[in-house]
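A student in our group prepared the protein record below, which I am reviewing. I have pasted the whole thing underneath without changing anything:
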Amino acid sequence: MVLLAAGAFALVRLEVIGGPSPEERAATVNDAITQRMTTTLEQMPATGHAGHGATDAKGTTVCGVRVYGYEPKDAKTADDVDTVYGFHMCAVAEPKGTWDFATKFVAPLIMKFDTTPPTMQMVEATETVSYRDRIFQVLPAEYQQQALTSALEPAAMAELRRRFDAAVASA
């Protein structure tokens, strides 16, 4: 009887209420966007990585990202997302390389998925505009504090380091 009641509740939740809660749906969209951003960044050659400028590093680029938010805010799937605001940290895993001396690319960014291929704008200082001021110029107000105070989550950083070490070992 308990099993029947639990099954009926699940059916009602999925069919009548409409599936996952808004929080569950947002987490699923966020996870899918994180994966899509990571893949997009890792497919770029280190020699011209995402607006950071040229580097002579040769190896596998591994990346970690943190999503601040996206548009449209009510997207039900990652495919519905046009623009993502977030942070990325990528490192080039060269043969016999070490994390401490690896070429790294780090910055808040805006990634546009409504273009083919996706386009990116990095938040970078210029000769006349400081990094802080550039954050205020480029990112929406709701994400500026995150860009000033946060990087990768500890779990994402640990995964990035693990993937970097694996890429070096297989180089």
